[in-house]
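sry for the spam today, last one i promise. struct tokens for design, 383 residues
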């Protein structure tokens, strides 16, 4: 049976990989919706190739440029609310949520409210609003299937036992480009340095998060909501080869891991074809070339973002929204050469310490916390 998919963030790294998977699956997968922020030329090429029913572009000026290129057949939505409109209007089975950052939250919420299956690559949605999204899943019949390689690995490994038999999970991390750098070296790292990820090919924001290990901090919070885990049962383990994508330890001492080449197309395809497995388009592991797998505990002194992730996960409430928003703004400031690499996480911590914590926030409270954190980063940088 053909699965109809809509891809939010189709011109980004995950979106392009999803289209690779769709092409590989052939008639088993139909692309009925595509959405991007402002990359109208790339979206135009995708529309010509896939001929979706609906497309959306958040930037209205870019949408006008795109409209001139369309020959009919695809309805074009434009503006900030266009992703939500697409989710509501597109007749799809699966929404691939691949928009980077908190900007993807409204559309993810809309997909959950519509009772759709969400292939979630946008970890920020659960980081910011997991307390609101997770309870709605049972109420609407929606389902979240993780696309992050680590959470997909946990999801697959947990199928080996019952939830109550899980003792802990291990989220593996490559360690990023600065795994062996000193704190002094990292403090002065350039944007080019931070973007040289040793194993994964990702977008710039996620790659920089990998360099600070903030991506793993956010994944701790995401795992708490995805799997209903106590924070103390979530551990991070540095694994530079990026072959073991994560592991689950069960109460009897058995550890089940999911292994594979570092290629996002594998977890994407699993989310699209679940509960079935189909022949994949990623390279296979070459066991004759693998001599050793290395593991080490993370250094919280050099990578304090992990400590902030655990703090925010334990606190809940508005902490995740503030952590995420402050990080997005600090990373952007680094990319624009307004702050050095060493100031990204310290700025996030400063904002997190200043915020007025709410334990049981509404959506409006979470959005307000997000806005406040972004403004507070600007105040910190201007001080």
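last one done:
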């Amino acid at each position: 049976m053909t699965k109809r998919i809509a891809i939010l963030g189709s011109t980004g790294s995950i979106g392009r990989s999803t289209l690779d998977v769709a092409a590989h699956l052939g008639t088993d997968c139909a692309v009925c919706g595509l959405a991007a922020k402002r990359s109208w030329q790339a979206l135009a090429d995708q529309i010509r190739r896939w001929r979706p029913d609906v497309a959306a572009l958040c930037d209205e000026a870019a949408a006008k440029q795109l409209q001139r290129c369309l020959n009919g057949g695809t309805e074009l939505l434009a503006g900030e609310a266009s992703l939500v409109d697409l989710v509501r209007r597109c007749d799809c089975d699966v929404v691939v949520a691949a928009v980077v950052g908190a900007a993807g939250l409204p559309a993810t919420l809309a997909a959950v409210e519509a009772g759709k299956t969400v292939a979630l690559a946008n970890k920020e949605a659960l980081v910011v609003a997991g307390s609101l999204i997770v309870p709605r899943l049972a109420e609407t019949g929606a389902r979240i299937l993780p696309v992050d390689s680590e959470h997909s690995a946990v999801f697959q490994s947990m199928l080996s036992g019952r939830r109550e038999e899980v003792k802990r999970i291990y989220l593996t991390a490559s360690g990023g480009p600065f795994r062996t750098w000193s704190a002094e070296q990292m403090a002065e790292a350039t944007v080019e340095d931070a973007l040289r990820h040793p194993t994964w090919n990702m977008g710039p924001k996620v790659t920089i998060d990998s360099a600070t290990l903030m991506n793993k901090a956010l994944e701790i919070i995401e795992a708490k909501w995805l799997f209903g885990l106590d924070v103390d049962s979530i551990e991070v383990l540095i694994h530079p080869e990026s072959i073991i994508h994560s592991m689950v330890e069960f109460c009897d001492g058995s550890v089940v891991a999911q292994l594979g080449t570092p290629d996002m197309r594998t977890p994407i395809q699993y989310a699209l074809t679940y509960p079935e497995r189909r022949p994949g388009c990623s390279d296979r592991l070459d066991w004759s070339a693998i001599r050793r797998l290395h593991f080490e505990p993370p250094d919280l002194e050099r990578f304090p973002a992990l400590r902030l992730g655990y703090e925010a996960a334990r606190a809940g409430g508005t902490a995740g929204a503030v952590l995420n928003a402050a990080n997005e703004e600090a990373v952007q400031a680094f990319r624009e050469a307004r702050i050095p690499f060493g100031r990204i996480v310290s700025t996030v911590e400063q904002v997190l310490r200043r915020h007025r914590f709410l334990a049981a926030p509404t959506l409006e409270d979470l959005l307000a916390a997000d806005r406040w954190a972004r403004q507070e980063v600007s105040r910190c940088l201007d001080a």
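The chain has three domains: 3-146, 151-301, 317-383. ok im logging off now
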